[in-house]
Request: fold
Amino acid sequence: MRINLTQYDPGVFFDEGLVGKNRARHSSKELIKLLRKMPDDELAARQSSAELAIKEMGISFTVYSEKEGTIDRSWPFDIVPRIISKSEWDKIELGLKQRVKALNLFIDDLYHDQNIIKAGVFPAEVLADSKNFRKECIGISPKEGIWAHICGSDLVRDEDGTMYVLEDNLRVPSGVSYMLENREITKKVFPELFETYAPLPVDDYPAQLHDMLSSISPRKVKRPEVVVLTPGIYNSAYFEHAYLAHQMGAELVEGRDLFVDKDECVYMRTVAGPQRVDVIYRRIDDEFIDPEVFREDSTLGVPGLIRAWKAGNVGLANAPGAGVADDKVVYAFVPDIIRYYLNEEPGIPNVPTYRCMYKEERDYVLANLDKLVVKPANESGGYGMMIGPAASKTERNTFAKLIRKNPRNYIAQPTLKISTVPTIIGKTLEPRHVDLRPFVLSGKKITVTTGGLTRVALRKGSLIVNSSQGGGSKDTWIVADAEK
Amino acid sequence: MLSRVAEAIYWAGRYIERAENTARLIRVNSHLMMDTPKGISPGWEPLISIAGLDAEFINSAGKLTEREVVKFLIGDLKNSGSILNSLKYARENCRSVREIIPRTAWQKLNKLYLFAKESVTSGLTQKGRDAYLDGIISGSQQLNGLLASVMYHDEAWHFLRIGRNIERAEMTTRIVDVRSENLLSEIEEEFEAMSFENIQWISVLKSLSAYSIYRRTVEVRVDRSSALEFLFHDPRFPRSLIHCINSAEDSLSILPNNVEPLKSLRGIEAKLKTQKVDDLKREALHAFVDEFQLRIRRFHNILEKQYFLSPHQ
Reply:
């Protein structure tokens, strides 16, 4: 049986593949044409061949459950690519560069003169309450003033097609390896579409990452020793840590592989003795990175690492303390931050955000809990949030209490009607909600991945795209605009 | 290279080899059972102690029947040396050093592990056993071939090679030990026993993929002395003890700070070279094997001390 799209119904949502039932959107015309011609068995067969490839390539993520402990799960992937036109992407790319540039200026300012607070643009109490502001970092000047070398910002599209920034991840954003692997798999599954569309390649990322990391080496050597610091194989993103180290030809190290010697330099333990390390791409959270300075009980980190960094003997990406801007309350101020430092209007808008710290906004939130999404300031992975329309009365009451108890810790946003993309469900296509996480690298220059990681909520009607909670992913294609 | 990585690679080499040789061990016993008349066959019991797994077997509370022993050696997750666990550990070790392992080799190891896991039920049937063991053996050989042809021959490669050869030497002695263990003792004097003994040495050679080379290079008739001489001392046969020790030595000599481990390995080599196989009658062979395994363990400890447990600052 051929695939029937006459029943495909995105409802009120903006669908990126089809304009209502059975009508392809312009940029997806060839894709939809191919899918229409395809027997449903073949579509299902292509999907399962992709799943087999993922299993055999060992593309996995780790989840933790109370019952089963840590388990390695295959990366859930939907073969139908998401298509974005290059003209739209160019604007998004500019907007992201602008945003990350401003965020780095902001972080650097917070750890130095705090001019933005003095100017009354950013409230001192938000900073005072910030969980991720590290006093230990005050006065430190990382190379080029860059703190967030790698940033992953989550974008969503509303029902009128506008892209918004939903959040910025400036601590240890993950997902880029899946973006790269998704492309590899899609090449195997839909070779014919690559001829038609020629999507812009994504595979330059590891080289760009390596260049950026090398550029923050304190030693001027031809090939600085760059390492990726991982918490170890039980971390949910371990696959990615290993993948990126492999792609960059860098050592993948754990805390126990490194030590700081009397000369305040970082060394790794090798079979030939200690070897100097120049740059650490750390994938361990601030709190665990150095038991001398942060959590004493951390066995993942390296004692003395912050000393070595302060002494200018090692480059750290992202810089400790960069997470101060990775806070859902700070997020609400980003448009002002952009205006303040760059004197420009934001290229990509924020989702309207209510800050529970302000009485007026809090009252609105408490009165409209059934319409809003409430998020805690410092959680990621979709944990600890409440989606109002889907929540029970008890849940809403719980959140009302939480908000009153600690208003600074909560923001709320309207439930966005985020866009859908055709996704394989059984042997047919149905609309499913997606977001997009592009990755931005900042060193001497700023580069953005071509597209990014599209995450898709595989459950019908669900808005939760996190892989730990039933989300999958798709390859994201940036394609030259077709002539109309 | 990182000490931790060296250790993981070394163990990956050992575990892959252990899976393969455990399969060979089961296979040689299966064939032995078929070649010996009822009543004088040694059964499956010796396999457990030969594999050095008595304690684990008792823990897993199995009976010493064919089915239980084979299940224990192939698929018992409580047995740290079962084929399934060996491949699981090989995979875990490689997973912790994914950046060192060529992607194709990693995929192959994954496939092999999935095969071992998913086909285990059929591997436990008498009919499916040989195909299963064959899958394990050829899978691990393909993996070794892949590693040899695509892996960068740097220090990681040499640690892998040392691990593999150390394990192989040890397992070859275990497979030889299948023959020496309390076998045929009651009818030793009888003429009939001789022909069985020879048939059984053929089984040993076959299980080590050595039979046709043996016939070509040694002689057509198989007897104990020449078989042992071949398996211990022929430097051209890749599973002989001397070949394994020499290969480990080659790799070790390329590594930095190798004085102590090299000394230990050369001690093993010297002892092996001067051992006359004619002197190795039943108990003597068993004793030699035991001592050889002990020396290998000592070598491992020295290697570990030198490279893996790196001294604190």
